[in-house]
Amino acid sequence: MDSVKSENINAKIVIVGSGIAGISAAVELTAAGFTNVQILEATGRSGGRIKTGDNVVEIGANWIHGPSEENPVFCLARRYGLLDPEALTPENQAMEVGGHPPWMTCLEILEEKKWADADKATRSLGFSVVSNLLKGECCVNGTHSLDEVGLGAFSLYKTLPGLDCTFPKGYEGLIQNLLSELPSDTVKYNCPVRCIEWNNTETESPVIVECEDGDRMTADHVIVTVSLGYLKKHHSTLFRPPLPLHKLHSIQRQGFGTNNKIFVEFDSAWWDADCEVMHFLWEDENSLVDKTLDLQSSWIKKLFGFTVLKPTERYGHLLCGWIAGHESEYMETLSDQEVTQAVTQLIRRFTGNPILTPKRVLRSQWFHNPWTCGSYSFPGTGCSSQDLKNLAEPLPTTGPQPLQVLFAGEATHPCFYSTVHGALLTGQREADRLLSHYSSTSTNHVLSKL
Ligand SMILES: Cc1cc2nc3c(=O)[nH]c(=O)nc-3n(C[C@H](O)[C@H](O)[C@H](O)COP(=O)(O)OP(=O)(O)OC[C@H]3O[C@@H](n4cnc5c(N)ncnc54)[C@H](O)[C@@H]3O)c2cc1C
Ligand SMILES: *[C@@H]1O[C@H](CO)[C@@H](O)[C@H](O)[C@H]1NC(C)=O
Ligand SMILES: *[C@@H]1O[C@H](CO)[C@@H](O)[C@H](O)[C@H]1NC(C)=O
Protein backbone atom coordinates (compact mmCIF):
# COMPACT_ATOMS: atom_id res chain seq x y z
CA MET A 1 0.00 0.00 0.00
CA ASP A 2 1.15 3.54 -0.75
CA SER A 3 1.57 5.81 2.17
CA VAL A 4 1.13 9.53 2.02
CA LYS A 5 3.69 12.24 2.60
CA SER A 6 3.41 13.80 6.01
CA GLU A 7 2.32 17.21 4.67
CA ASN A 8 -0.86 15.64 3.28
CA ILE A 9 -2.04 13.58 6.18
CA ASN A 10 -4.16 16.48 7.39
CA ALA A 11 -6.36 16.50 4.29
CA LYS A 12 -9.92 16.36 5.61
CA ILE A 13 -11.85 13.42 4.18
CA VAL A 14 -15.55 12.91 4.91
CA ILE A 15 -17.17 9.59 4.04
CA VAL A 16 -20.95 9.51 3.72
CA GLY A 17 -22.30 6.14 4.89
CA SER A 18 -20.94 3.49 7.25
CA GLY A 19 -21.64 0.42 5.16
CA ILE A 20 -18.89 -1.90 3.96
CA ALA A 21 -17.82 0.53 1.20
CA GLY A 22 -17.45 3.51 3.54
CA ILE A 23 -15.71 1.50 6.24
CA SER A 24 -13.23 -0.13 3.84
CA ALA A 25 -12.35 3.30 2.43
CA ALA A 26 -11.75 4.62 5.95
CA VAL A 27 -9.62 1.62 6.94
CA GLU A 28 -7.42 1.99 3.88
CA LEU A 29 -7.00 5.76 4.29
CA THR A 30 -6.27 5.49 8.00
CA ALA A 31 -3.74 2.71 7.44
CA ALA A 32 -2.01 4.90 4.85
CA GLY A 33 -1.55 7.70 7.37
CA PHE A 34 -4.52 10.04 6.88
CA THR A 35 -5.49 11.33 10.31
CA ASN A 36 -8.52 13.40 9.43
CA VAL A 37 -11.07 10.84 8.25
CA GLN A 38 -14.69 11.11 9.38
CA ILE A 39 -17.57 8.79 8.49
CA LEU A 40 -21.05 10.31 8.73
CA GLU A 41 -23.78 7.70 9.12
CA ALA A 42 -27.49 8.49 8.96
CA THR A 43 -28.60 5.68 11.26
CA GLY A 44 -27.49 4.56 14.71
CA ARG A 45 -25.49 1.58 13.42
CA SER A 46 -22.77 0.57 10.98
CA GLY A 47 -23.13 -2.10 8.32
CA GLY A 48 -25.93 -0.72 6.11
CA ARG A 49 -27.16 -3.64 4.04
CA ILE A 50 -25.10 -6.02 6.18
CA LYS A 51 -27.43 -6.55 9.11
CA THR A 52 -27.54 -9.52 11.45
CA GLY A 53 -30.61 -9.94 13.66
CA ASP A 54 -31.43 -12.24 16.61
CA ASN A 55 -30.44 -15.91 16.19
CA VAL A 56 -27.85 -14.95 13.55
CA VAL A 57 -30.62 -14.25 11.06
CA GLU A 58 -29.28 -12.18 8.15
CA ILE A 59 -31.74 -9.41 7.28
CA GLY A 60 -29.44 -8.27 4.47
CA ALA A 61 -26.39 -9.95 2.92
CA ASN A 62 -26.13 -13.67 3.68
CA TRP A 63 -23.41 -15.27 1.57
CA ILE A 64 -19.88 -14.60 0.54
CA HIS A 65 -20.41 -15.09 -3.19
CA GLY A 66 -17.43 -16.96 -4.61
CA PRO A 67 -15.29 -17.43 -1.50
CA SER A 68 -11.79 -17.87 -2.92
CA GLU A 69 -8.43 -16.09 -3.00
CA GLU A 70 -9.61 -13.31 -5.33
CA ASN A 71 -12.49 -12.39 -3.04
CA PRO A 72 -11.40 -9.75 -0.49
CA VAL A 73 -14.36 -10.47 1.79
CA PHE A 74 -13.33 -14.10 1.96
CA CYS A 75 -9.72 -13.17 2.70
CA LEU A 76 -10.71 -10.72 5.45
CA ALA A 77 -13.19 -13.14 7.01
CA ARG A 78 -10.48 -15.81 7.03
CA ARG A 79 -8.00 -13.41 8.62
CA TYR A 80 -10.49 -12.49 11.34
CA GLY A 81 -11.34 -16.16 11.94
CA LEU A 82 -15.01 -15.72 11.07
CA LEU A 83 -15.58 -18.78 8.84
CA ASP A 84 -16.36 -22.45 9.36
CA PRO A 85 -13.46 -24.82 8.59
CA GLU A 86 -15.26 -26.28 5.50
CA ALA A 87 -15.33 -22.87 3.86
CA LEU A 88 -11.54 -22.68 4.13
CA THR A 89 -10.81 -25.93 2.34
CA PRO A 90 -9.21 -25.79 -1.11
CA GLU A 91 -12.05 -27.97 -2.44
CA ASN A 92 -14.62 -25.42 -1.34
CA GLN A 93 -12.66 -22.57 -2.87
CA ALA A 94 -12.27 -24.40 -6.17
CA MET A 95 -15.96 -25.19 -6.62
CA GLU A 96 -17.34 -23.63 -9.81
CA VAL A 97 -21.02 -22.98 -9.30
CA GLY A 98 -21.58 -19.95 -11.48
CA GLY A 99 -22.60 -17.82 -8.53
CA HIS A 100 -26.09 -19.19 -8.19
CA PRO A 101 -27.83 -19.91 -4.92
CA PRO A 102 -28.93 -23.52 -4.44
CA TRP A 103 -32.45 -23.10 -5.76
CA MET A 104 -31.73 -23.30 -9.47
CA THR A 105 -32.45 -27.01 -9.58
CA CYS A 106 -35.89 -26.80 -11.14
CA LEU A 107 -34.30 -26.86 -14.57
CA GLU A 108 -33.72 -30.53 -13.88
CA ILE A 109 -37.45 -31.07 -13.45
CA LEU A 110 -38.01 -29.61 -16.89
CA GLU A 111 -35.53 -31.95 -18.47
CA GLU A 112 -36.82 -34.99 -16.65
CA LYS A 113 -40.29 -34.40 -17.92
CA LYS A 114 -39.15 -34.51 -21.57
CA TRP A 115 -40.97 -31.31 -21.92
CA ALA A 116 -40.83 -30.96 -25.67
CA ASP A 117 -43.29 -33.76 -26.45
CA ALA A 118 -45.25 -33.53 -23.26
CA ASP A 119 -49.02 -33.67 -22.85
CA LYS A 120 -51.04 -30.65 -21.83
CA ALA A 121 -50.84 -31.22 -18.09
CA THR A 122 -47.10 -31.66 -18.19
CA ARG A 123 -46.77 -28.57 -20.34
CA SER A 124 -48.72 -26.59 -17.84
CA LEU A 125 -46.42 -27.86 -15.10
CA GLY A 126 -43.53 -26.83 -17.28
CA PHE A 127 -44.84 -23.28 -17.44
CA SER A 128 -45.31 -23.22 -13.68
CA VAL A 129 -41.74 -24.36 -13.24
CA VAL A 130 -40.38 -21.75 -15.62
CA SER A 131 -42.47 -19.10 -13.93
CA ASN A 132 -41.04 -20.15 -10.57
CA LEU A 133 -37.53 -20.12 -11.96
CA LEU A 134 -38.03 -16.56 -13.17
CA LYS A 135 -39.24 -15.45 -9.75
CA GLY A 136 -36.03 -16.86 -8.29
CA GLU A 137 -33.96 -15.01 -10.89
CA CYS A 138 -35.80 -11.79 -10.00
CA CYS A 139 -34.62 -12.29 -6.41
CA VAL A 140 -31.03 -12.86 -7.50
CA ASN A 141 -31.10 -9.77 -9.67
CA GLY A 142 -33.18 -7.71 -7.27
CA THR A 143 -35.61 -6.72 -9.98
CA HIS A 144 -39.36 -6.77 -10.52
CA SER A 145 -39.14 -8.57 -13.84
CA LEU A 146 -36.31 -9.80 -16.01
CA ASP A 147 -37.68 -7.49 -18.73
CA GLU A 148 -36.07 -4.67 -16.77
CA VAL A 149 -32.64 -6.28 -16.85
CA GLY A 150 -30.49 -5.08 -19.72
CA LEU A 151 -29.38 -7.94 -21.93
CA GLY A 152 -26.40 -6.00 -23.21
CA ALA A 153 -25.03 -5.40 -19.76
CA PHE A 154 -25.94 -8.88 -18.55
CA SER A 155 -22.53 -10.31 -19.18
CA LEU A 156 -20.85 -7.59 -17.10
CA TYR A 157 -21.47 -9.46 -13.85
CA LYS A 158 -18.55 -11.72 -12.95
CA THR A 159 -18.67 -14.71 -10.66
CA LEU A 160 -15.73 -15.99 -8.65
CA PRO A 161 -14.97 -19.63 -7.91
CA GLY A 162 -15.92 -21.09 -4.55
CA LEU A 163 -19.07 -22.53 -3.01
CA ASP A 164 -20.97 -19.65 -1.37
CA CYS A 165 -20.51 -19.67 2.39
CA THR A 166 -22.01 -17.80 5.34
CA PHE A 167 -20.73 -16.28 8.59
CA PRO A 168 -21.64 -18.72 11.37
CA LYS A 169 -21.71 -15.89 13.92
CA GLY A 170 -23.25 -13.35 11.54
CA TYR A 171 -22.07 -11.10 8.68
CA GLU A 172 -21.90 -8.13 11.07
CA GLY A 173 -18.80 -9.71 12.63
CA LEU A 174 -16.94 -8.53 9.53
CA ILE A 175 -18.11 -4.96 10.17
CA GLN A 176 -17.14 -5.07 13.86
CA ASN A 177 -13.66 -6.35 13.02
CA LEU A 178 -13.11 -3.66 10.40
CA LEU A 179 -14.36 -0.94 12.74
CA SER A 180 -11.83 -2.06 15.33
CA GLU A 181 -9.10 -1.02 12.88
CA LEU A 182 -10.34 2.59 13.04
CA PRO A 183 -9.90 5.24 15.74
CA SER A 184 -12.96 4.94 17.96
CA ASP A 185 -14.49 8.30 17.05
CA THR A 186 -14.26 7.81 13.27
CA VAL A 187 -17.98 7.17 12.79
CA LYS A 188 -20.49 9.84 13.71
CA TYR A 189 -23.91 8.19 14.04
CA ASN A 190 -27.42 9.59 13.61
CA CYS A 191 -26.00 12.15 11.27
CA PRO A 192 -27.80 12.12 7.91
CA VAL A 193 -26.08 14.24 5.28
CA ARG A 194 -28.53 16.60 3.63
CA CYS A 195 -26.37 18.43 1.14
CA ILE A 196 -22.90 18.31 -0.32
CA GLU A 197 -21.83 21.73 -1.58
CA TRP A 198 -18.85 21.30 -3.83
CA ASN A 199 -16.84 23.49 -6.20
CA ASN A 200 -16.49 26.24 -3.58
CA THR A 201 -13.79 28.68 -4.58
CA GLU A 202 -14.20 31.28 -1.84
CA THR A 203 -13.52 28.96 1.08
CA GLU A 204 -10.24 27.25 1.75
CA SER A 205 -11.78 23.78 1.56
CA PRO A 206 -13.62 23.06 -1.67
CA VAL A 207 -16.50 21.07 -0.11
CA ILE A 208 -19.01 21.78 2.63
CA VAL A 209 -21.08 18.92 3.99
CA GLU A 210 -24.35 19.88 5.59
CA CYS A 211 -26.13 17.48 7.92
CA GLU A 212 -29.83 17.18 8.64
CA ASP A 213 -29.39 19.02 11.97
CA GLY A 214 -27.90 22.01 10.16
CA ASP A 215 -24.34 21.19 11.18
CA ARG A 216 -21.88 22.16 8.44
CA MET A 217 -18.35 20.89 8.06
CA THR A 218 -15.69 21.60 5.50
CA ALA A 219 -13.77 18.91 3.65
CA ASP A 220 -11.14 18.50 0.99
CA HIS A 221 -12.74 15.28 -0.26
CA VAL A 222 -16.06 13.57 0.28
CA ILE A 223 -16.58 9.89 -0.56
CA VAL A 224 -20.28 9.24 -1.16
CA THR A 225 -21.31 5.62 -0.51
CA VAL A 226 -25.10 5.95 -0.29
CA SER A 227 -27.07 3.35 -2.23
CA LEU A 228 -28.01 3.87 -5.87
CA GLY A 229 -31.65 3.88 -4.74
CA TYR A 230 -30.91 6.80 -2.44
CA LEU A 231 -29.04 8.63 -5.21
CA LYS A 232 -31.90 8.15 -7.66
CA LYS A 233 -34.33 9.64 -5.16
CA HIS A 234 -32.29 12.43 -3.59
CA HIS A 235 -29.59 13.51 -6.08
CA SER A 236 -31.26 16.84 -6.80
CA THR A 237 -31.05 17.98 -3.17
CA LEU A 238 -27.91 16.08 -2.19
CA PHE A 239 -25.54 17.92 -4.54
CA ARG A 240 -25.03 21.64 -5.05
CA PRO A 241 -24.14 22.36 -7.86
CA PRO A 242 -26.11 19.43 -9.34
CA LEU A 243 -24.42 16.36 -10.80
CA PRO A 244 -23.24 16.65 -14.40
CA LEU A 245 -25.86 15.33 -16.82
CA HIS A 246 -23.92 12.33 -18.08
CA LYS A 247 -23.52 11.09 -14.53
CA LEU A 248 -27.17 11.72 -13.72
CA HIS A 249 -28.32 9.83 -16.80
CA SER A 250 -26.20 6.85 -15.84
CA ILE A 251 -27.69 6.90 -12.34
CA GLN A 252 -31.13 6.84 -13.95
CA ARG A 253 -30.28 4.06 -16.43
CA GLN A 254 -28.75 1.72 -13.91
CA GLY A 255 -31.38 -0.44 -12.20
CA PHE A 256 -32.06 -0.68 -8.48
CA GLY A 257 -34.71 -3.05 -7.20
CA THR A 258 -36.10 -4.86 -4.22
CA ASN A 259 -35.48 -8.33 -2.87
CA ASN A 260 -36.79 -9.17 0.59
CA LYS A 261 -36.64 -12.13 2.91
CA ILE A 262 -39.46 -13.53 5.02
CA PHE A 263 -38.18 -15.70 7.85
CA VAL A 264 -40.67 -18.22 9.19
CA GLU A 265 -39.90 -20.15 12.35
CA PHE A 266 -41.59 -23.35 13.51
CA ASP A 267 -41.44 -25.33 16.74
CA SER A 268 -40.54 -28.42 14.76
CA ALA A 269 -39.68 -29.28 11.19
CA TRP A 270 -42.51 -30.52 8.95
CA TRP A 271 -40.13 -30.91 5.99
CA ASP A 272 -37.68 -33.74 5.26
CA ALA A 273 -34.29 -33.57 6.94
CA ASP A 274 -32.51 -33.38 3.57
CA CYS A 275 -34.80 -30.66 2.15
CA GLU A 276 -32.86 -27.55 1.12
CA VAL A 277 -35.36 -25.57 -0.94
CA MET A 278 -39.13 -25.62 -1.40
CA HIS A 279 -40.61 -24.17 -4.54
CA PHE A 280 -44.23 -23.08 -4.83
CA LEU A 281 -45.69 -23.82 -8.25
CA TRP A 282 -49.01 -22.26 -9.19
CA GLU A 283 -51.22 -24.07 -11.69
CA ASP A 284 -52.81 -20.94 -13.08
CA GLU A 285 -49.45 -19.49 -14.07
CA ASN A 286 -49.21 -21.13 -17.46
CA SER A 287 -48.46 -17.83 -19.07
CA LEU A 288 -45.39 -15.79 -18.40
CA VAL A 289 -47.28 -12.51 -18.63
CA ASP A 290 -46.61 -10.16 -15.78
CA LYS A 291 -49.77 -10.08 -13.66
CA THR A 292 -49.82 -7.21 -11.23
CA LEU A 293 -53.60 -6.93 -11.17
CA ASP A 294 -54.52 -7.51 -7.60
CA LEU A 295 -51.54 -7.15 -5.29
CA GLN A 296 -53.60 -7.56 -2.16
CA SER A 297 -54.70 -11.09 -2.94
CA SER A 298 -51.83 -12.26 -5.12
CA TRP A 299 -48.60 -10.71 -3.79
CA ILE A 300 -47.63 -13.93 -2.05
CA LYS A 301 -47.48 -15.76 -5.38
CA LYS A 302 -44.32 -13.82 -6.19
CA LEU A 303 -42.60 -15.61 -3.29
CA PHE A 304 -40.71 -18.22 -5.23
CA GLY A 305 -40.18 -20.49 -2.26
CA PHE A 306 -38.31 -21.11 0.97
CA THR A 307 -34.75 -22.12 1.67
CA VAL A 308 -34.19 -24.18 4.81
CA LEU A 309 -31.63 -22.62 7.14
CA LYS A 310 -29.01 -25.05 8.32
CA PRO A 311 -27.66 -26.29 10.64
CA THR A 312 -30.70 -26.72 12.87
CA GLU A 313 -28.55 -26.39 16.02
CA ARG A 314 -27.83 -22.81 14.97
CA TYR A 315 -31.15 -21.67 13.54
CA GLY A 316 -33.80 -23.95 14.98
CA HIS A 317 -36.55 -24.83 12.48
CA LEU A 318 -36.29 -21.80 10.29
CA LEU A 319 -37.29 -21.16 6.68
CA CYS A 320 -36.30 -18.15 4.61
CA GLY A 321 -38.72 -17.03 1.89
CA TRP A 322 -37.57 -14.84 -1.01
CA ILE A 323 -39.67 -12.27 -2.79
CA ALA A 324 -38.67 -9.58 -5.29
CA GLY A 325 -40.23 -6.69 -7.18
CA HIS A 326 -43.43 -4.70 -6.72
CA GLU A 327 -45.08 -7.51 -4.78
CA SER A 328 -42.16 -7.38 -2.37
CA GLU A 329 -42.51 -3.61 -1.99
CA TYR A 330 -46.24 -4.07 -1.37
CA MET A 331 -45.52 -6.76 1.23
CA GLU A 332 -43.48 -4.19 3.17
CA THR A 333 -46.57 -2.03 3.65
CA LEU A 334 -48.54 -4.83 5.33
CA SER A 335 -48.66 -5.34 9.08
CA ASP A 336 -46.75 -8.20 10.72
CA GLN A 337 -50.10 -9.95 11.28
CA GLU A 338 -51.08 -9.66 7.62
CA VAL A 339 -47.76 -11.09 6.45
CA THR A 340 -47.97 -13.90 9.00
CA GLN A 341 -51.51 -14.70 7.92
CA ALA A 342 -50.60 -14.83 4.21
CA VAL A 343 -47.58 -17.03 4.84
CA THR A 344 -49.52 -19.36 7.13
CA GLN A 345 -52.28 -19.74 4.53
CA LEU A 346 -49.72 -20.44 1.83
CA ILE A 347 -47.99 -23.14 3.82
CA ARG A 348 -51.25 -24.76 4.89
CA ARG A 349 -52.50 -24.76 1.31
CA PHE A 350 -49.37 -26.33 -0.13
CA THR A 351 -48.86 -28.92 2.60
CA GLY A 352 -52.54 -29.74 2.98
CA ASN A 353 -51.99 -29.47 6.70
CA PRO A 354 -54.63 -27.08 8.12
CA ILE A 355 -53.04 -26.62 11.53
CA LEU A 356 -49.42 -25.74 10.71
CA THR A 357 -48.71 -22.48 12.52
CA PRO A 358 -45.43 -20.55 12.50
CA LYS A 359 -43.99 -19.59 15.85
CA ARG A 360 -42.60 -16.34 14.49
CA VAL A 361 -42.41 -14.43 11.21
CA LEU A 362 -39.86 -11.73 10.44
CA ARG A 363 -39.45 -9.90 7.13
CA SER A 364 -37.00 -7.38 5.76
CA GLN A 365 -38.26 -4.03 4.44
CA TRP A 366 -35.43 -2.71 2.29
CA PHE A 367 -37.57 -0.62 -0.05
CA HIS A 368 -39.09 1.45 2.75
CA ASN A 369 -35.76 1.84 4.52
CA PRO A 370 -35.25 5.57 3.87
CA TRP A 371 -31.44 5.17 3.74
CA THR A 372 -31.39 2.31 1.27
CA CYS A 373 -34.56 2.69 -0.86
CA GLY A 374 -34.37 -0.89 -2.16
CA SER A 375 -32.01 -3.85 -2.07
CA TYR A 376 -29.30 -3.76 -4.72
CA SER A 377 -28.46 -2.70 -8.24
CA PHE A 378 -28.77 -4.55 -11.54
CA PRO A 379 -27.89 -3.45 -15.06
CA GLY A 380 -31.02 -1.75 -16.34
CA THR A 381 -32.13 -1.95 -19.95
CA GLY A 382 -29.99 0.33 -22.08
CA CYS A 383 -27.30 0.38 -19.42
CA SER A 384 -23.74 -0.19 -20.61
CA SER A 385 -20.35 -0.55 -19.00
CA GLN A 386 -19.86 3.16 -19.73
CA ASP A 387 -22.73 3.93 -17.34
CA LEU A 388 -20.99 2.00 -14.59
CA LYS A 389 -17.83 4.01 -15.29
CA ASN A 390 -19.83 7.22 -15.09
CA LEU A 391 -21.27 6.18 -11.72
CA ALA A 392 -17.77 5.78 -10.33
CA GLU A 393 -16.39 8.99 -11.85
CA PRO A 394 -15.24 11.58 -9.30
CA LEU A 395 -16.09 15.31 -9.42
CA PRO A 396 -14.26 17.12 -10.86
CA THR A 397 -11.65 15.04 -12.64
CA THR A 398 -9.52 18.02 -13.63
CA GLY A 399 -8.87 21.60 -12.54
CA PRO A 400 -6.98 23.06 -9.61
CA GLN A 401 -8.92 21.03 -7.02
CA PRO A 402 -9.82 17.66 -8.45
CA LEU A 403 -11.46 14.76 -6.57
CA GLN A 404 -13.76 16.83 -4.37
CA VAL A 405 -16.56 14.28 -4.49
CA LEU A 406 -15.81 10.58 -5.02
CA PHE A 407 -18.29 7.75 -5.43
CA ALA A 408 -18.12 4.26 -3.95
CA GLY A 409 -20.71 1.62 -3.06
CA GLU A 410 -22.00 -1.63 -4.49
CA ALA A 411 -23.56 -0.07 -7.63
CA THR A 412 -20.30 1.56 -8.75
CA HIS A 413 -18.39 -1.69 -9.26
CA PRO A 414 -17.98 -2.58 -12.95
CA CYS A 415 -18.50 -6.34 -12.51
CA PHE A 416 -19.17 -7.20 -8.85
CA TYR A 417 -22.13 -4.84 -8.36
CA SER A 418 -24.86 -6.06 -5.97
CA THR A 419 -22.39 -7.84 -3.71
CA VAL A 420 -20.47 -7.20 -0.49
CA HIS A 421 -17.09 -7.85 -2.11
CA GLY A 422 -18.00 -5.44 -4.91
CA ALA A 423 -18.89 -2.75 -2.36
CA LEU A 424 -15.71 -3.35 -0.38
CA LEU A 425 -13.55 -3.08 -3.48
CA THR A 426 -15.14 0.25 -4.45
CA GLY A 427 -14.28 1.71 -1.04
CA GLN A 428 -10.68 0.62 -1.51
CA ARG A 429 -10.70 1.95 -5.06
CA GLU A 430 -11.65 5.46 -3.96
CA ALA A 431 -9.19 5.39 -1.08
CA ASP A 432 -6.50 4.38 -3.58
CA ARG A 433 -7.55 7.20 -5.88
CA LEU A 434 -6.87 9.69 -3.10
CA LEU A 435 -3.65 7.96 -2.10
CA SER A 436 -2.22 8.11 -5.58
CA HIS A 437 -3.45 11.69 -5.94
CA TYR A 438 -1.47 12.68 -2.88
CA SER A 439 1.56 10.57 -3.69
CA SER A 440 1.75 12.05 -7.20
CA THR A 441 1.21 15.65 -6.03
CA SER A 442 3.88 15.08 -3.42
CA THR A 443 6.20 13.73 -6.06
CA ASN A 444 5.56 16.76 -8.26
CA HIS A 445 6.19 18.94 -5.31
CA VAL A 446 9.52 17.27 -4.64
CA LEU A 447 10.47 17.34 -8.32
CA SER A 448 9.74 21.04 -8.70
CA LYS A 449 12.10 21.76 -5.80
CA LEU A 450 14.99 19.97 -7.45
C1 LIG B 1 -31.79 -8.68 1.10
C2 LIG B 1 -30.36 -8.56 0.64
C3 LIG B 1 -29.59 -9.69 0.48
C4 LIG B 1 -28.27 -9.59 0.05
N1 LIG B 1 -27.52 -10.72 -0.04
C5 LIG B 1 -26.21 -10.62 -0.36
C6 LIG B 1 -25.38 -11.77 -0.30
O1 LIG B 1 -25.83 -12.85 0.07
N2 LIG B 1 -24.08 -11.63 -0.64
C7 LIG B 1 -23.56 -10.44 -1.05
O2 LIG B 1 -22.37 -10.37 -1.38
N3 LIG B 1 -24.33 -9.32 -1.10
C8 LIG B 1 -25.63 -9.39 -0.74
N4 LIG B 1 -26.40 -8.27 -0.72
C9 LIG B 1 -25.82 -7.00 -1.19
C10 LIG B 1 -24.91 -6.35 -0.15
O3 LIG B 1 -25.56 -6.32 1.09
C11 LIG B 1 -24.61 -4.92 -0.60
O4 LIG B 1 -24.12 -4.93 -1.93
C12 LIG B 1 -23.57 -4.22 0.27
O5 LIG B 1 -23.76 -4.47 1.65
C13 LIG B 1 -23.64 -2.73 -0.02
O6 LIG B 1 -22.68 -2.01 0.75
P1 LIG B 1 -22.51 -0.44 0.52
O7 LIG B 1 -21.50 0.03 1.49
O8 LIG B 1 -22.32 -0.18 -0.92
O9 LIG B 1 -23.95 0.20 0.85
P2 LIG B 1 -24.79 0.20 2.22
O10 LIG B 1 -24.53 -1.02 3.01
O11 LIG B 1 -26.18 0.49 1.84
O12 LIG B 1 -24.17 1.43 3.03
C14 LIG B 1 -24.56 2.76 2.80
C15 LIG B 1 -24.70 3.47 4.13
O13 LIG B 1 -25.03 4.84 3.87
C16 LIG B 1 -25.95 5.29 4.84
N5 LIG B 1 -26.63 6.47 4.30
C17 LIG B 1 -27.55 6.55 3.31
N6 LIG B 1 -27.90 7.82 3.09
C18 LIG B 1 -27.16 8.58 3.94
C19 LIG B 1 -27.06 9.99 4.17
N7 LIG B 1 -27.81 10.89 3.49
N8 LIG B 1 -26.19 10.44 5.12
C20 LIG B 1 -25.44 9.56 5.85
N9 LIG B 1 -25.49 8.21 5.65
C21 LIG B 1 -26.35 7.73 4.71
C22 LIG B 1 -26.84 4.08 5.04
O14 LIG B 1 -27.54 4.15 6.27
C23 LIG B 1 -25.83 2.93 5.01
O15 LIG B 1 -25.34 2.64 6.30
C24 LIG B 1 -27.71 -8.33 -0.25
C25 LIG B 1 -28.48 -7.18 -0.06
C26 LIG B 1 -29.79 -7.28 0.39
C27 LIG B 1 -30.58 -6.03 0.60
C1 LIG C 1 -29.55 -12.06 -13.22
O1 LIG C 1 -30.21 -13.10 -13.87
C2 LIG C 1 -29.51 -13.63 -14.95
C3 LIG C 1 -30.40 -14.52 -15.77
O2 LIG C 1 -31.20 -15.35 -15.03
C4 LIG C 1 -28.25 -14.30 -14.45
O3 LIG C 1 -27.54 -14.92 -15.52
C5 LIG C 1 -27.41 -13.22 -13.81
O4 LIG C 1 -26.22 -13.77 -13.28
C6 LIG C 1 -28.19 -12.53 -12.70
N1 LIG C 1 -27.46 -11.42 -12.17
C7 LIG C 1 -26.86 -11.46 -10.99
C8 LIG C 1 -26.22 -10.19 -10.52
O5 LIG C 1 -26.81 -12.43 -10.31
C1 LIG D 1 -17.10 25.43 -10.67
O1 LIG D 1 -16.59 26.72 -10.42
C2 LIG D 1 -16.01 27.32 -11.54
C3 LIG D 1 -15.35 28.65 -11.09
O2 LIG D 1 -16.22 29.38 -10.27
C4 LIG D 1 -17.06 27.52 -12.63
O3 LIG D 1 -16.49 28.09 -13.78
C5 LIG D 1 -17.66 26.16 -12.97
O4 LIG D 1 -18.73 26.31 -13.89
C6 LIG D 1 -18.20 25.47 -11.71
N1 LIG D 1 -18.64 24.11 -12.03
C7 LIG D 1 -19.86 23.68 -11.77
C8 LIG D 1 -20.19 22.27 -12.14
O5 LIG D 1 -20.70 24.36 -11.23
TrEMBL record:
List locations, semicolon-separated: Cytoplasm
Any one cellular-component term (Gene Ontology):
cytoplasm
Cofactor(s) of this protein: FAD
> What main location does UniProt list?
cytoplasm
Q: This protein is called what?
A: Amine oxidase domain-containing protein
Recorded hits in InterPro entries, A to Z, give:
Amino_oxidase, FAD/NAD-bd_sf, Flavin_monoamine_oxidase
Name the Gene3D superfamilies for this protein.
Answer: 3.90.660.10, FAD/NAD(P)-binding domain
* Organism this protein belongs to: Periophthalmus magnuspinnatus
State the Gene Ontology terms under molecular function.
polyamine oxidase activity
* Source taxon at top rank: Eukaryota
Instruction: Kindly list the biological process annotations in GO that this record carries.
Output: spermidine catabolic process
- Keyword annotations from UniProtKB, A to Z: Cytoplasm, FAD, Flavoprotein, Oxidoreductase
Family assignment? Belongs to the flavin monoamine oxidase family.
Give all residue intervals belonging to the Amine oxidase domain.
20-87, 154-435
